[in-house]
Structures are given as C-alpha cells and as structure tokens.
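CHAIN AND CONFORMATION:
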Amino acid sequence: MAAVCQVTGAVPGFGHSISHSHRRNKRRFDPNIQKKRYWVPSLRRNVTLNVSAKGIKVIDARGIDAVVADIIARGEKI
C-alpha cells in the first residue's frame, strides 16, 4: 500500500536520523495511513479509503459526501 492519503494528499517526507555522535542516515517519514471503510449515502454503498489521521478529522468535519465528491472530481477511482 502506498503511503499517500486520498483526502489530504499527504506523502512521505525524507530526511536524516541523527545519532548521538551526529552521524546521519537517510530515512523516510511516513504519514499515519489507515485503511477506513465509510458508508456513503449519496452513492448508497461502502467506500474504502486510505486516509491519514488528519484525513479522518477532515472527513469528520466536512462530511463523507463532500470529501468523496472532491475525490471523484479529481478523477481518482474509488
């Protein structure tokens, strides 16, 4: 599963992990992606989305119908 949020578009960030002696190693900061299943009344079916923790909060605030409408408008398959 790709570490991309379908709602917010959050993608992994890249940087360094730095040890006590200040040696640097490449690392990847993944967003907190969860696979969530929602009932969408306008489509009259369940939809499974890969969303970050912040994306879940956006769905709670705006409503699943509005969020799914935006995803469909972007041309993403649900």
The chain has one domain: 11-72. The radius of gyration is 16 Å. The CA atoms of residues 6 and 52 lie 8 Å apart.
